[in-house]
């Protein structure tokens, strides 16, 4: 009877809600989840990073591939698994795009889809490029406004497209590496509650399997804009290893040091 009741209860348990970034860079990790039996225990919710962050803050998801810049705003947080969206040097898809050299930039438009990269850009403008342009938050697509002395921070697939359009492309992963000598973490699997160890272990394995299946992901994802195999293996760096954890701590320390203003979470 006891076992029966447990079984009934298990059947009724809600699936764990997992927020995923709807960019190409998340595809290998998501591919791994979809190939794994862990997929039966989860519900995937795909959106752009700022909205995944908002959902974790509001508690409508349990875990997400979340911009790390929102970690200080969570009442409770756990950084799960050995996998992330990171880089060690140039990342290709997080850049400051401009028509003029960086020292001539007067205004920077900040991508509404981002939380980490816009915070990183503020740090780099101040500490690395040492300029103080006017910073403007955006709400919708703004790429056609990148002209004259108005530059823009663009992330994700749209940044891969913008590389072919802007005269000057300043890679934020590369600039961070030049400034600190460290890799960088843009997003990690952050939960707002402690999730069962067995689930996290299976989730971790699924991520690893996905990264090991990059050739299959590339084969099933036609993308004429950028060589995806190069993107997944030379630019994006998925392992959340010790140097990346140190880089994450440094970034979070710089965030509290510099950007005292709260992260504004936009409504959809
Ligand atoms: C490298 C990237 O990392 C992304 C950048 C994020 C941000 O700026 O908040 C969040 C999630 C990541 O997927 C990218 O999207 O190009």
Automatic annotation (TrEMBL):
<dbReference type="Pfam" id="PF02621">
    <property type="entry name" value="VitK2_biosynth"/>
</dbReference>
<comment type="similarity">
    <text>Belongs to the MqnA/MqnD family. MqnA subfamily.</text>
</comment>
<keyword id="KW-0474">Menaquinone biosynthesis</keyword>
<dbReference type="GO" id="GO:0016836">
    <property type="term" value="F:hydro-lyase activity"/>
</dbReference>
<dbReference type="GO" id="GO:0009234">
    <property type="term" value="P:menaquinone biosynthetic process"/>
</dbReference>
<comment type="function">
    <text>Catalyzes the dehydration of chorismate into 3-[(1-carboxyvinyl)oxy]benzoate, a step in the biosynthesis of menaquinone (MK, vitamin K2).</text>
</comment>
<dbReference type="InterPro" id="IPR003773">
    <property type="entry name" value="Menaquinone_biosynth"/>
</dbReference>
<protein>
    <recommendedName>
        <fullName>Chorismate dehydratase</fullName>
        <ecNumber>4.2.1.151</ecNumber>
    </recommendedName>
</protein>
<comment type="pathway">
    <text>Quinol/quinone metabolism; menaquinone biosynthesis.</text>
</comment>
<keyword id="KW-0456">Lyase</keyword>
<dbReference type="InterPro" id="IPR030868">
    <property type="entry name" value="MqnA"/>
</dbReference>
